[in-house]
Amino acid sequence: MKEDSASFEKSGATTDVALSPTTSSLEQPFDTAVERRLVRKLDIRIIPVLWILYLVNFIDRANIGNAKIQGMEKELHLIGQRFNICVWVFNLGYLVAGVPMMIVFRRYGPKTLCAMMFFWGITVIGCGLVKRWEQLVICRLLEGMCEAAYISGAAYLIGAYYTKNEYLTRFVIFCTAGIIAGAINGFVSSLIAKMDGTAGYGAWRWIFIIEGIVTICVSILSLPFIIPWPENCTFLTPEEKELMLARVKAEGGHIAEDEITFKQALNVLKDWKIWAGVAMNLGVTENANSLSNFQPTILKGLGYTSTQAQVHTIPVYLTGAAFSVIFAYMSAYLRRRYVFYMLGWAVLASGLIVEIVHPPKPAVRYMGMFFIACGCYLAMPISIIWVSINAGKGYKRAIAIGAIINFGTAGAFVSSNVFMFKETPRFHTGFSTGLGLACMGATAATITFLGCRWENKQRDRLRAEMPAVLEESMAELGDKHPDFRFAT
After folding, report:
1. Transmembrane residues, as ranges (predicted)?
2. Percentage of the chain surpassing pLDDT 70?
3. What percent of the chain is modeled with pLDDT above 90?
4. Out of 40, 58, 98, 316, which could bridge 148 as a Cys pair, Cβ 3.0 to 4.6 Å?
5. Cis peptide before 425 (omega within 30 of 0)
6. What residue ranges define each of the domains in the chain, with the CATH number in brackets?
């Protein structure tokens, strides 16, 4: 197949990138049936293993909330804001190591994801062996640093194989692992709680120890199944690989021979759309972190026992997963990001308002948890994918994803300090702050939408004054190419 620099038109469908009539990337469109078979094969080979790893990843990061109500708070003497410190220090590690670890991932390849997982499994076991709360803080900090590039790396790897119109739905399916993990955490923790006193360890210690051992085992077993970069893949036939690489060159986010310097990395971070994406992601991630870390405590405050509180988290997460997948498919089908981000924001805000009003009936407050989960888990992946496809390809996309996810998780600094012990179970300050940040995210999404539309109009005007065929390729210029159009 003959290729050039521009995006292609596939099966008569329009893309987000406007092209002149003479810049078709291929002499003829891809065969739809062949392409469908290729995508199905990619789905089977790429998504399941990354999904399983993310399932384990999220269980490890969120299990501190489950351990808290199983005796950790009392044994480690977590008075005042000590538990909150143990929560937010994880995100400090995330924030500090995020972008550097993402560059390491991009340079040394996808199998580094398994190495990261192995080391964070060790830190999780350490959380179960600590004697003092200060030691728990250190273990959580190291865990955050080890996990810092996993979600970002998986997001980049998925985008390396798929076109931008396939990207969102695959990433949302990947993200459901984190949602399901929240449900599994409650169920598994209620089972592990039965080990209380075994070998002289409390139930909360066994939650960390068992889940850490599982993480290490999964990291070793998954190593052969992590796919390489597209140019090195061996699980496709030569014909399928040729088609896949043609798609990657035309619309994927990966560039095989791409290098970056520290100065270039800093220059990438000057793009205003990346920081708008950080604000979008932060506005909903703060609420998602609040849900995962404090939901068991909130539910226990509604009158449930510890075990009942663990079990009642399950329907909340499952509903959030179903909601996010359904509307992400609609977003991808209609090729509209802003509208569906705002839908997620509206649902999230509704749930937060319920919790702020704090109606007397526990069932109504429990309903608010469902709204919060649904809104968060739709808006979060949209914010990441929307900005990443607007960042072009290669290292710029990798850095953009790393910045959005890792700086976006700074919301956890807020959530872990505004859900104050003295306000249990109402947490008025926590939910009010979450609503304010959600509105900040909605404002950033609106700015991104209007800004991208304005830039596209400017590019349309300038492109009309240029030759029909340009010498520079899309791979060379990325989002600076005159034919590149920003998704809205």
Report:
1. 85-104, 110-130, 142-162, 168-192, 204-227, 314-331, 338-357, 363-387, 399-419, 431-452
2. 87
3. 37
4. 98
5. yes
6. 32-244+262-480 (1.20.1250.20)
